[in-house]
Amino acid sequence: MIRFIVLFVELCIICLSLGDYNEGSTSSYNDTNEVVHEDETYYTPQLDYKHPQWCHVLKLSNGEVSCSSPRGGHHRGSLGTRCLLSCVRGYKRLGPSSVQCMPNRRWSGSAICRKIRCHVLPLIDYGMYSCTRGFVVDSRCDYTCYEGYQIEGDRYRMCQEEGTWSGTEPTCADHDPPKLKCPLSRVKIAEPGKLTAMVSWDRPVAKDTADRALQVLRNGLESGSDFPEGIHVIRYKVSDQARNTATCKFTVHVEVRRCPKLKPPMHGYLTCSSDGNNFGAVCEYHCDPGFERTGFATRVCQLNRSWSDEAAQCVCEYVVRFIFKSQTLFFFFVKHLLFLLVMAIKTDVRSAGALLDQFYEKRRLLVVSTPDNANQKYRLQNIMLQKAECGLDLRHVTVIELLGTSPRAVGRIKEQRIDPEVVEGLRQALYISTAYFTMVLLDEYGVDRERFVNPTTSDELYSYVDEYLLTEEQLERLAMNRDFCD
């Protein structure tokens, strides 16, 4: 009996050493070659280290498997084989670094290779970036800035094997100053009878690649101001939001044309307007008691820095009376001859065409237009025209004055009035603006030959008419009567 008991115990020990029937699991691979386990019932056979394929061949997607077998050679699945698991660049291993083929015909563990990704880079202000391979390892992201901005910091970043980006995030800064261009420097002549000149210019416009709305600051008088005599520097400055600045400047030179100072007449004195000898200044001659003035009463400082007419003189009254009596009849005849010539013109017409038709092929016209009677240029021109009346008549030039604006416009030819509707019609027909002083010279055919926007001396008017409007026959006749107006 004891012998049977001992035999039974020995058999049990042998069975335990060889293994029992038990439940286990086998391993397989899914589509990604990752190791997965499926529960099943299997029988563990007797250990055999010489069996060439005890465990299945181990594979690792996006990785490498390096095995060493007790049998050596190319055996990669025999019992006791140890395999080292590693992933290619850009992938990270999840699981053990090594596994071993176990007696239960299973590997001691499993691993997978997961792609390494860096976090999504944030956008930068006033710039952008572009990447070669997205946000995976070895992808390069290059930064660029919008027009007008410059990059500060790293120009590119690399996704590293640790899943982090190299370098630091750059910024886009505005270093380009705005562009500002000033008007050209200019020289202006002071207006007639004034020591100032009104100067206007277009305000400079600033441009900037980064900012759209820019405020331009001025240092100096503004456009449209009256500038006194001298050189004036006008500066402009502009700044963008990044405090980049741009400046420009130009000069305004106001020149006052001056004539030589007049000497008072012997036995008399002078009174002058404005500064006395500046362009447009009018000087009047006065005589002491017992003396009378001969010659022109006033002289005007002209643009060419010379005085109009000749200097007046103060002579004894008795001498003047004797000379005057001998010439009274002659001047009376001339005055009334000119008056009769004017009276022959009909000014009570209703249209500009009817008025102009009376002069066709007979007379030349000098049309003088002014916004108002107080206009400084008109007043100066009127003085010079009064002295040129005789010379213009010799050249068959009639002066038509258009004064004021509608509905108070007034027209006249010497003392004869012109209807306001005719005044408006003349301005429209001759394209004359009511905003400023203008003179238009028409030939005997009504053709616009010259325009003047500044006062013109009688000598300048005579010179233009003689050179461009008179025929040779008319010039000869004019030469014979040149002393008529002296």
Structural overview:
The protein is an alpha+beta fold and 486 residues long. It has five domains: 95 residues, Ribbon (Complement Module, domain 1), CATH 2.10.70.10; 47 residues, Complement Module, domain 1; 70 residues, Immunoglobulins (Immunoglobulin-like), CATH 2.60.40; 56 residues, Complement Module, domain 1; 141 residues, 3-Layer(aba) Sandwich (Glutaredoxin). Helix content is 20%, strand content 31%. It is built from eight helices and 29 strands. A six-stranded mixed β-sheet has the order 27-26-25-24-28-29. Strands 13-18-17-15 form a four-stranded mixed β-sheet, with no helix packed on it. A three-stranded antiparallel β-sheet has the order 3-4-6, with no helix packed on it. It is rod-shaped, with a radius of gyration of 56 Å. The relative contact order is 0.06.
Quick tags:
single chain; 486 residues; alpha+beta; Complement Module, domain 1; Immunoglobulin-like; 5 domains; six-stranded mixed β-sheet; 8 helices; rod-shaped; disulfide bond; Sushi repeat-containing protein SRPX2; repeat; sushi; secreted
Sequence-ordered SSE layout with sheet pairings:
Blueprint: H1 2-18, E1 22-29, E2 35-42, E3 63-68, E4 82-87, E5 91-94, E6 98-100, E7 112-115, E8 127-131, E9 140-145, E10 150-152, E11 156-158, E12 171-173, E13 186-189, E14 196-199, E15 216-219, E16 225-228, E17 230-239, E18 245-255, E19 268-272, E20 282-287, E21 291-294, E22 298-300, E23 313-316, H2 317-343, H3 352-357, E24 364-370, H4 376-387, H5 389-394, E25 397-403, E26 410-413, E27 416-418, H6 420-429, E28 438-442, E29 448-452, H7 458-468, H8 472-480
Parallel strand pairs: 13-18, 24-25
Antiparallel strand pairs: 1-2, 3-4, 4-6, 5-7, 8-9, 9-11, 10-12, 14-16, 15-17, 17-18, 19-20, 20-22, 21-23, 24-28, 25-26, 26-27, 28-29
